[in-house]
Amino acid sequence: MDSFYRRLLADERLASIFLDVAAIDLDTHLPHIKDYWCKLLLGERGYQRHTMNIHRRLHSKRALQAEDFQRWLDSFVATVDEGFAGERAQRAKQVAAAIAANMEKSLPHATIDAAG
Q1: Residue of 39, 77, 36 lying closest to 54 (CA atoms)
Q2: pTM
Q3: At CB < 8 A and 24+ separation, what contacts does 96-105 make?
Q4: Distance between CA atoms of residues 45 and 38, nearest Å
Q5: C-alpha to C-alpha distance for 6 and 30, rounded to whole angstroms
Q6: How many helical (H) and strand (E) elements, i.e. helices and strands, does the chain have?
Q7: What is the pLDDT of residues 16-39, one digit of tens each?
Q8: Is-contact 104 116, C-beta < 8 A?
Q9: Are 64 and 58 in contact (CB under 8 A)?
Q10: Percentage helix, strand, coil, to 5, in the chain?
């Protein structure tokens, strides 16, 4: 996760979402994210937050677009591929793809006001 977040925060589009909009503090955020992935991949029970609610609040501040989810997923896959191989690496990439698709599908799409 450390390498993944270094990659995200170097991405000109995604960095502003994490740093400016979400205003994450990596010292606080990374342990939560690590717990989240341990829950998803290893069945551990350390993560108890509601992920969609967190992302709904973020989305209300700055609408997340399909490109954001794709860049996030591309960064995740690249990070995994650089450091890992095998069945668990494939599983992590499958889970990440499902997360990105679910987030994109579940967050409300921006509507255009016809009145201008």
Answers
A1: 36
A2: 0.87
A3: 97/73, 100/69, 100/70, 100/72, 100/73, 101/69, 103/52, 103/55, 103/64, 103/69, 104/64, 104/66, 104/69
A4: 8
A5: 11
A6: 6, 0
A7: 999 999 999 999 999 999 999 999
A8: no
A9: yes
A10: 75, 0, 25
- Give pairs for 25-34: CB < 8 Å, separation 24+: 29/5, 30/1, 30/2, 30/5, 33/1, 33/5, 34/1
Give the number of other CB atoms < 10 A from CB of residue 3.
13
Distance from chain centroid for Cα 1: 11
| pLDDT tens, residue by residue, 85-102 | 999 999 999 999 999 999
Which token pair is 12?
Answer: 């000109």
Contacts of 42 (CB under 8 A, 6+ apart): none
Q: What tokens were used for 50?
A: 């509601």
Would you say 21 and 31 are in contact if contact means Cβ atoms under 8 Å apart? no
